[in-house]
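Bench notes, afternoon.
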Amino acid sequence: MLSDVEHVRRRPGMYIGDSGSHGLHHLFLAKLAGTASGSVDC
């Protein structure tokens, strides 16, 4: 059984849709949105 980190490393497409530049852009925007919503909740 794979740990959470190993699973994401082996199958990044399941989480970000793509492992190319489009997927990395999506991951960055998701992280940015999470950070922004976290700062508003304080």
